Amino acid sequence: MSPSSPTPQGGWWSPGHLPGVQRVSTLVFVVVFGMWLETVPSPWFEREANGVVSFNYHPVCMTLAFVVLMPEAIVVYADGEDGRGITHVNAKRIHTVVHCVSTLFLLMGLMAIFANHKGHNIPPMYSAHSWMGLLTTILVGLQALVGFGVYFFKPVVSSLASADATNQTLSVSELRKNIMPYHRFFGCAAFVLGLNTCISGFVEKQAFTKCAIDPTYKYCAALALPNVLVVLVATIGSCSMGIVYARHLNRRPDRAQWVHLTPEEQREDARSALMSARQRRARGTEEIEDLEY
To answer: How far apart, in Å, are the Cα atoms of 159 and each of 153, 154, 165, 232, 285?
Structure first.
């Protein structure tokens, strides 16, 4: 293994393995989701009775947001820099852009379901699924505000740093470092809550669905495919969170104790860390300031 190659990080759950499992699961999810849309009463995006906006816009937009795009935003940040050679600044930019697109789909999905319910005179916010969706939307919105304000707009974070009464010398980079654990936790919480909201949505839709030929039959495609989708959503979420956990674990000072590295692996880690430090110094002052965030 050359000093410049990424160090294996602790087994099957490492960032080197989980992104592949996550992306294959996402591809399978997209295929199965398309098959499921063919089984619902109003397939794809056809107008419903009285010209009501198709319900299908809602699950399509929400699954694109939480099952397809948000996992990619997490993986590119948690794995791209350490395991794929992407620079920190570029990983952060890709992370932000993908999250912005996913948030756009989230808003489109909300607009679609409110329009659909209004057209059918269905009261909004009546189910646990809708309450979970509202909480998820609030968390995602707060995460977006914090992410843009603290990690992209220096005037905002500079004003926060100067307002710190306990440490007037707190630098921008130190403040970002202090905020990062909270940003990471609430980001993961919003993502996990979003996936669970998607799962509850599939289960709720499944409860309203009847097999076309025999309403008493329980194993037609319209009822079986949501089961597959739920399993895939759980797999994608588990892989994404595993990547975040592995990155955090492998950046701990006591990493060797936790993952039981051999002396040779510890030396390889030290060489890789030295190479990374030299590369980061070459990137310039701006990127070094953001190094650990």
So the answer is: 10, 8, 12, 44, 21
CA–CA separation, 231 and 29 (whole Å): 9
Please list, in sequence order, all residues whose beta carbon lies within 8 angstroms of the beta carbon of residue 57, skipping any fewer than 6 positions away: 45, 108, 109, 112, 113, 116
**In terms of Cα–Cα distance, which of 131, 150, 161, 15 is closest to 92?**
150
Q: Which residues have C-beta within 8 Å of that of residue 53, sequence separation ≥ 6?
A: 47, 112, 115, 116, 119
Count of residues making up the chain = 293
Could you tell me the pTM of the whole model? Answer: 0.76
CB atoms within 10 A of CB 47: 11
Residue range 78-125, pLDDT digits in tens: 887 766 777 878 888 899 999 999 999 999 999 999 999 999 899 989
Q: Please report, for residues 38, 158, 200, 222, the alpha-carbon distance to residue 64 in angstroms, rounded to integers and kept in the order given.
A: 17, 35, 16, 20
In this predicted model, what pLDDT tens digit does every residue of 118-155 receive, in sequence order? 998 999 899 999 999 999 999 999 998 888 777 776 66
Phi, psi angle pair for 78, to nearest 5°: -80, -25
Local structure of residue 215 (DSSP, 8 states): T
- 227-252 pLDDT, tens digit each: 999 999 999 999 999 988 877 776 65
